[in-house]
Amino acid sequence: KSLTKKRQFTWKLAAKLTSKGYPISKSSVHNYLRHSLNALPYRPRLHPKLLENQRKTLLQFCRERKYWTADDWKCILFSDESPFELFHAQIPKQIGFGEEIREMWNPLQL
To answer: What's the superkingdom here (predicted)?
Structure first.
């Protein structure tokens, strides 16, 4: 089952087998999967893969700005694409989302 389902942890597999009466360590599960079944550990990508045109555009952007000075970079506004709102009401996270709460914290009614 661990070959068809990704993100199966060796310690979870070892715990399942041990609970069913087959005592085994997580390193033994790892060695069996690696050497007997040729299964390599699954590592998810940390970021999405760039397309070829995105790579070219990014490289061109970097080459155009390779010799910029600190003063040139001071004219640039950096953003992580987070939404920004002016004058929005802060809703505490511990409060539920009942109708009264929504009405109470609605910034349009303030």
So the answer is: Eukaryota
Environment class of residue 72 by beta-carbon count within 10 Å: exposed (0-12), middle (13-18) or buried (19+)?
A: exposed
What does DSSP assign to residue 108?
G
pTM for this prediction: 0.36
DSSP 8-state code for residue 107: G
* pLDDT tens readout for residues 56-98: 999 999 999 999 999 998 888 777 766 656 565 555 554 444 4
Q: Measuring CA to CA, how many Å separate 26 from each of 5, 12, 38, 39? A: 17, 8, 16, 15
In this structure, are residues 39 and 2 in contact, taking their beta carbons and an 8 Å threshold?
yes
CB-based contact 88:107 (threshold 8 Å):
yes
39, 33 contact by CB (below 8 A): yes
Supply the DSSP symbol for 50: P
